[in-house]
Amino acid sequence: MPRDEGRISEPHRCKVGSACVRRHVCRLAAVPGAEVRTVRAAKGQRIGGAGSGSSCFYVVRSGTVAAQAVMADGRRQLIAFHTPGDLVCPLGVGAAGCWAEALSATVLWEVRLHGPAPREGEAARLWAALFEIAHVELARALTHVVMLGRLDGTERVSVFLADMVRRIGRQSGPRAAWRLSLPMSREDMADYLGLNAETVSRILSRLKKAGIVRFQSPSECEVPDLALLERHAPVRPALAGITPAEPPSERYLGEACV
Amino acid sequence: MPRDEGRISEPHRCKVGSACVRRHVCRLAAVPGAEVRTVRAAKGQRIGGAGSGSSCFYVVRSGTVAAQAVMADGRRQLIAFHTPGDLVCPLGVGAAGCWAEALSATVLWEVRLHGPAPREGEAARLWAALFEIAHVELARALTHVVMLGRLDGTERVSVFLADMVRRIGRQSGPRAAWRLSLPMSREDMADYLGLNAETVSRILSRLKKAGIVRFQSPSECEVPDLALLERHAPVRPALAGITPAEPPSERYLGEACV
DNA sequence: CGCCAGCTTGAGCAGCCTCAATGCACGTGG
DNA sequence: CCACGTGCATTGAGGCTGCTCAAGCTGGCG
Predict the structure, then answer these.
(1) What is the rounded radius of gyration, in angstroms, for the C-alpha atoms of chain B?
(2) Which residues, including other chains, have CB under 8 Å from residue B133's CB and lie 6 or more apart?
(3) Residue A192 Rama label (left phi>0; alpha psi -120 to 50; beta)
C-alpha cells in the first residue's frame, strides 16, 4: 500500500454555507486548525487509514467510494456506497477487516483535524457535528439491517436502484425518465445487497422485462417511472446528507447548536 | 397506550463512577438537570416515545428490551437486544415503524435531560457522550449488517449464542460450562437473525446434536465449550457498553473529554 | 485481431421458508 | 382434581429462492 497514494497537495478552505455540500462537513471544516485538501484515489485504493495512522474525514467530489468489511475467508459485505457529496468517515469502519475503498478513480476532499485545541464552545460544536454524522450513519445502517434481514432479492435491488436514482440520477424534465450511471459492478451491488452477482443480474433482467428499468449498457440505465420502481421498494433509505431526526437533546441544548 | 405506564416515581441520582454500569450513561446522568427515575414496563410495552413526545434514555436494570422495525405488511426485524446494564436510546429508533419494546417484565432507569441549559464545557461533555453512544450503536449495527448479509443460518445462530453468553452468561468456575437463560422466544431470535422461528429451532437442534449446546428447557441452556461455539461464529459483535474505538478527534479534543 | 474482465443465462442443487401436525408447560375454570 | 385452551417449541414434507458451476456473450483495450 503506497504511503502517499499520489495525493495532490492543494490545501484550501471550505467556505461555510456555500461550497460545502453537507452541513456537518462544514462544521468539521470550520473547526479552527482543520485542514482541507484535495486528494485523488485510483480504483481499488483504500481511503484513509493506510497512512500515518491519523484518521481523517473525506468528502467525495467525483467517483465512488465503498465502505466494506471482508471476512477471513474472503466473504465481502459492502456497508455503504459514497457518491459525490457524501462524507466518508472512519466511524465504525475502523474495525478489523473493515475499510473504505475507491470503486473507480475518485477525487476527494480530505478534512484533517489536527490544529490547536478548540476553545470552549467550539468543542461542543465539533462533538455535536460528530454526533450528527454518527447518527446519520446509524440510521442508514439500520435501514440496511432491515433490508438484509427481511426483504427478498427483488425488493433489495429495487430499494437499491431507487436510492441510486434519488442520489445520482438525472432527469431531463419534470416528467421525463430518470437516467442513471451505475458506478459499481454487479458484484459490488451483490456484496452490498447480500446476494451474488448472478442473482443481481437475473433480477435486473426481470425488472427490465417488466419495463421498470431500461439498460443502454450494463452501467447506463433509465427508470421511466420512479414511483413504479418504488412500489417494489418497501423501505426508503435515509438519503445521504439529509439532516437526521432531531437529536434527543437538541431542544435542551438549544444554544449550543450551530 | 397508557400515559403513565405504571411507573414508580423514585427519583434518584446516578453515582458517577460507581453505581453506573456504563460510562456514557454516567455522563448523561451527570448532566446538570438530568433526572433519573426507576420505571417498569410489562411484556410487550413500548419503551419511551409513546408518552409526552420527549425522548428519554433508559438503562435496563432487569428484563430485556428489543429495538425493532416493523414494515407495513407486518414483517418484523429486531435491531438489538438490550440486556441488564445496556442503554436503550432513541437514536435511529425514531424512524417510522421503529421502536423499542420490553420482551418481558422489565425495570429501567429513565434518564431525562430537561433541566437548565448546560454551562459551557458541559455541553461539550454531553455531545461527546451522545457521540460515543451513537458510535457504539453504529459499530453494533455494522456487525449486524455483515451477519445478515454474509453468514448462513448456523453461523448467525452461533454468533448470537456466543454474544448472549458473553453478555448474560454465568460460569460457576473458570473451566465450567456457561449457563444461559435466553430471555426471548425463538421468533424474537429469528426476527433478529433474519430467519424464521422454525429454522432457528432446527439449527438449535443441530447444535444440540453436535454437543455445542445443551438445553434443560427451551430457554435454559448450557454451553460447555465457548471456544468451540465461537469457532462457528465468524464475526464477533462489539460487546454492549465496551468503550468504542478511539473517536477520531479524541486526541485533538483531549481536554474536552470527560 | 485477440484477449480479458465483466455481464448474462441456464441447469442443478442446497438452504431456508411455508404449512401442518404434534408435544409440552402453564393457567383457567368446572 | 382434571379437562381444556393457549402459547410456544419442535419436527416433518414439500416448495421456492438464491447459490454454484459452467458456458456463452459483449465491449474495451493492447
Answers:
(1) 19
(2) B24, B87, B89, B91
(3) alpha
pLDDT at A127: 80
The residue of chain B nearest to residue A135, with distances taken between CA atoms, is B134
C-alpha cell at B253: 479534543
- Please tell me if residue B59 touches chain A, with a CB cutoff of 8 Å: no
Distance CA A5, CA A58 (A): 15
In whole angstroms, what is the distance from residue A5 CA to residue A80 CA? Answer: 22
Q: Which nucleotides of D are covered by protein (CB under 7 A)?
A: 8-13, 17-22, 27-28
B137:A139 CB<8 A: no
**pLDDT tens-digit map of A108-134:** 988 887 655 566 667 777 788 788 888
**pTM of the predicted structure, to 2 decimals:** 0.85
Q: Using the 8-state DSSP alphabet, how is residue A101 labeled?
A: E
- Helix segments in chain A, DSSP class H: 23-30, 122-150, 153-168, 186-193, 197-209, 226-231
- What's the Å distance between residue A143 CA and nucleotide D5 C1'? 40
Q: Residue A73 CB: number of other CB atoms within 10 A?
A: 7
Nearest by CB to residue A252, choosing from B90, B91, B113, is B113
